[in-house]
Amino acid sequence: MAAKGVERLLNVIMTIGSRRRIDRAKLFAVIPDYASAASDQAAERMFERDKAAILELGLPLATERDVLDENTVYYRIDAGTSGAVLDLTTEEYTVLLAASRAWDDAAAGGAARRVRSKLLSLGHDADPDLLRRTPRGAVESLPVLSPLLEAVTAARSVRFTYRGTHGAPAERHVEPWVVGVHDGHWYVHGWDLGRSAARLFRASRIESFPTAGPPAVQERPEQTDLASVLGAMHESDDHDRAVVAAAPFKALALRDRAGAPLDAERLELPPLPRPAARRLVLADVRWGELLEPAAWRSELAEVLTAIADAHEREADLAGVEAAAVRPEPRIRTTPTGTDTLSRLISEASYVMDRGEADLAELSAALGVSTTQLITDLQVLFVCGDMGTGWEDLIEAEWEHGTVRVRNAEPLRRALRLSAVEITALLAGLAALEPSAGEAEAIVASARQKLLAGADGGSEEPPAAPTRAELAEAASVDEMASRTADRAESVLTAVHRALRADVDADEGGGGDAARLTIRYSSTDRPGTSVRRIRPRRIDTDGTRSYLLADCELAEAPRRFRLDRIVEILPPGTPQERAGAGEGPLLDGLVDGEVWLRLDPPGRWVAESFGAAELRDGTDGSTFARVDSPVRAALVDAVLESAGAVEVLAPRELRNTIVTVARVAGTRHTQA
Fold it and tell me: How does strand 197-202 pair with strand 185-192?
């Protein structure tokens, strides 16, 4: 929608909203674009598009016919219709605002762009202390999500170009059943019409903007759990309980799966399919050794030996040179007129609710530049009620950094959230929840109100279990309970320190704002003991990180929350982790890393944000990764079970040879 269309819609909203109702004929006469249309039919088509946009905004546009003359049609904004305008506490509003900020506005679809603006239109003020302690999330933001979510809610099919694990893009025609997040990544599960079967698609591999197709005809399953669908991909007839020897305070993912104490040297995993267990053990194989079953142990030794052999040879770089560079998919991300209108109305509502607002603070709240904000105010300035016989325009001013908006009462309203926008907020909450800590109950209550809004408020949805209820349910298993308690105690201590940090900045007690932690890093054996001052929590939807000032490093450091294995007494002496034997895996790889990826290993390119992809003639993919974290990349190569080979640099190939040989030798010894 062009700028002229945005202005027209604002004029329509102002004109209808400024009075109890207005008849269609007068509306067409006073709105310049309708009055100057080439024909009555052109004006009608323009108005129908505008009506759809107004409803999409969340404004309750009502249509009535005169009881005495059916040819006379009136329009009004129904102030009594609330829909999904949420009745939130200050705390719930604060966590939802944080959830909306988990989206990258530059890359997300329209729903994610609109949702923050609509929250601001509610007229709430956030709790600054809670907002500071709420994790800063980063949901995988993709422009393809809005049309996919809309297809689910409208029960329609969609068409898109998809590049699967085997590399070649293909057109797919799908009836989506569910669009959701698992381990920080978006997936689409639905009925593939071309293959007459249920299929799972990773949204980041969709290379064209999905276009709406005919209504869905395949019956949708009552329950669709993404975790179960993904888990089935690793199914095998070979199930067993893997037993693993592990170094104390290491192999934390395996410990969590086994529910084992931090210092336990023998872990027993629950029954798992062989492929799933192999991937879990390989991801932590630097710190562990698979003891049983014997057949799985032998297979693991063969895999590790094959990885070492492949990296010991000279790399074949000719394939990289011969491979065709894969162009980046060009999917439109331009904000729509509806996005712009939502922001304009929210800006006006926000300022009028407060009387005035600081220009810089308002731009920060909306996530737009001050230049964009001033452009928006200039649009407001030329719009208004066109139905009074003269142009009754909105008054907007922003001189000296203070914003004021007057004569725009029809815009002073809370915008309703659509089902798609509610889904965007739910995804943001899901990204924040693992590290919500003491705010978990607030996150849960905000989610319940979102779900009730999505359901039209017809009935209260079933309550989601809290962390405390999950821990209680797990108490029958002492080990699982102990693992849950560890994560809970770390989060609780971090959140208390973050709260105390505000008092410390104001001259209060600084000791409460500091923690002594035992940290188990991925790049060296053993653990370190550090005294830190937490500053904030970040999350990428998969993992949560604590940014803190570290006394031992005398600099800010980033700690993975799940690798803070315990909180120690304040007087515990600080110490660094020992270097141990074997190659050093700390820090980043200097410069470019080239990888060759077979289909099962293509997830590595996505996980490390490959800067360039090339398609080989033999079906393999080549990826360039710039300055990756060394230890994480080595672990990913091992986890891929031979589906990924590092081609360059040679130094990194040598590291993988050493690590794989050591681990392979452990699994061949009696």
Answer: antiparallel
